[in-house]
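Protocol step 4 of 6: record predicted structures for both targets in the notebook before any analysis. Target 1:
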Amino acid sequence: MNWSAFKAVLNDWPAPQLRDLLHELYKLNEENHRFIHARLVPSQASVEVSRSELKRILSASSVYNGKFHHADAKRIIDQYAKATNNRHAVASAMS
């Protein structure tokens, strides 16, 4: 099934069902939670959440314990950039 088919189905869904679906996706995992929060409620708090996650990933203990993966940091930055479409917020999250 491609995106066009999903769009056709979603066009007929009532708003309460769309909200329920969005809520389920929000609860599904931390990545969805961050993405939906950044997209729908852009704020300094969403910048701080992404910044704190990046700090955790880039911490000395992560690096020295062999838990650092460049792809994890890139994924957080890319997802935040896609969610906000705001270069200044992305730069702020990375500082």
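Target 2:
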Amino acid sequence: MTRIRTRRTIDQIAGGAFSLKCPLWTYILAEAARTRTPVKIPVNGDQTISTPKLGPVGGRIVAEVFLGLMFGDPHSMLSSNPNWTPNAGANYKLRDSLGSPWDRRVASSVTSGAAGSCE
């Protein structure tokens, strides 16, 4: 027997209990379920899977939390140099900062004990 799965809207879930009063976390999960992206998995050749990703609302919340943490930390890259801009411009990805002078500065401050000590 083949079961056909149809997507339900937020109004159809829980007998309409969330209609016009959807909790934010439920909305973010529903948004991510509808925002899928293909990802290549190099395990067995070039297998591609479709995986959920944060949508516009969830992505904005996560980005603002990270920025708030970085600006609130007096030792973060953005607090120490608030006018910093990435060399890659609009195409900048977080992974582009790996191996940057900033990473080397952080690594040296941790090894020198400037960022705190466990002693």
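Step 5 preliminary note on target 2. Residues 11-84 form one domain. The chain is about 35% helix and 10% strand.
Proceed to step 6 after PI sign-off.
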